[in-house]
Structure formats: structure tokens, C-alpha cells
């Protein structure tokens, strides 16, 4: 599980996905994407300290059979930190090392991942129909994948429903992966 978030709102969602993978019998190792903003900029933005997780590298990707990513939205696409990471994988793509393997954000991310031969496993409705169609609260998540709504300052934390959807996705994801490998 690899993730990045300036305000850490994705951390709880990532933990729930990891719990779902483990509940289904899988093993999940957490990584984070390297920060590209300077400490000066982060301080001015009042960004919280990053968690003590290893930084994902292109080489680490090749040691796993599957990976799931927590990607925040920046203008309907992944943020610069994710772009910098995927740009750093061009050597893997050129050598053929990676040849298997919120709605607009996921959709736009697929463009980059497709060129790496990454198989996308959506959440769909099969395992979370009731949660995704729950109209008792405004919530993140869709058939494309788990998600959360966060205020621009990160003050809104994922709701229990959003975390439940993330855990369901982790469990469903691992169910597909363990059959494939």
C-alpha cells in the first residue's frame, strides 16, 4: 500500500485498506511517496509531519506481485508528488520490468498505469453496494474506488462509512490478487 497526502487525511483510509487486505488473509506493507515540496513551503502551509514510513522507489515496485495506492486529488488528477514518482519509473517501463501486474482521479491515473502494464482492480458494486449507495450522509467512494472528502486544510477526517468502504476494497482487492498470483 503506497500513499501520499499533504494533510494526512488519506492515512486513515490507507490503514482501513490495509486492514481489509489482512482480514482477507493478505499481507500489506505501507510506503509513502516522497515529498517534493520544500520544508519551507510545508511550514507555510501548516502541513503536519509525515509519518515514519519508508519511501517507495521504482525498484521496490518490482519486488511485489500487486500494489494498491492511495492517491489524493489535485484538480482531477494525482498530485505532483505522485507524478514525480511515476516519472521516476520510466527506466522500469523502458526495460519491461513492469509489464504485468475519486473517479476522475482514478480514471486519469489509469492512463499512466496502463503504460506500465498495471492491471486496475476497481471496487465495483459487488462487495459494497449498500455502502456506496447509502444516502444518509455525504461520503467519498465510488465503484472506481474508496475515497474520502477532506477540507482544504485536512480538518475533515474520513467518516466511519468511508473507512468501511476502504476496508471492503482492501479485502476485495486481496481476493482478486491472491487468485492471480
Automatic annotation (TrEMBL):
SUPFAM superfamilies: Flavoproteins (SSF52218)
GO cellular component: membrane
Taxonomic superkingdom: Eukaryota
Any one GO MF annotation of this record: NAD(P)H dehydrogenase (quinone) activity
Flavodoxin-like domain sequence ranges: 1-173
Matches recorded under InterPro entries: Flavodoxin/NO_synth, Flavoprotein-like_sf, Flavoprotein_WrbA-like, FMN_Rdtase-like_dom
Pfam families: FMN_red
Family: Belongs to the WrbA family.
Protein name stated in the entry: 1,4-benzoquinone reductase
Annotated organism of origin: Mycena belliarum
Amino acid at each position: 500500500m503506497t500513499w501520499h497526502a499533504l494533510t494526512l487525511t488519506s492515512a486513515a483510509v490507507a490503514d482501513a485498506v490495509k486492514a481489509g487486505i489482512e482480514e482477507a488473509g493478505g499481507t500489506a506493507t505501507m510506503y509513502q511517496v516522497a515529498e517534493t515540496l520544500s520544508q519551507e513551503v510545508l511550514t507555510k502551509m501548516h502541513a503536519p509531519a509525515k509519518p515514519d514510513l519508508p519511501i517507495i522507489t521504482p525498484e521496490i515496485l518490482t519486488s511485489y506481485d500487486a500494489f494498491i495506492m492511495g492517491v489524493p486529488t489535485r484538480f482531477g488528477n494525482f498530485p505532483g508528488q505522485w507524478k514525480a514518482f511515476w516519472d521516476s519509473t520510466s527506466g522500469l517501463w523502458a526495460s519491461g520490468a513492469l509489464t504485468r501486474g475519486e473517479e476522475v482521479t482514478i480514471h486519469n491515473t489509469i492512463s499512466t498505469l496502463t503504460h506500465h502494464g498495471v492491471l486496475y482492480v476497481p471496487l465495483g458494486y459487488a462487495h459494497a453496494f449498500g455502502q456506496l449507495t447509502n444516502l444518509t450522509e455525504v461520503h467519498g467512494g465510488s465503484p472506481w474506488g474508496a475515497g474520502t472528502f477532506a477540507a482544504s486544510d485536512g480538518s475533515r477526517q474520513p467518516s466511519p462509512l468511508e473507512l468501511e468502504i476502504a476496508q471492503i476494497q482492501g479485502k476485495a482487492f486481496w481476493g482478486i490478487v491472491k487468485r492471480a498470483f
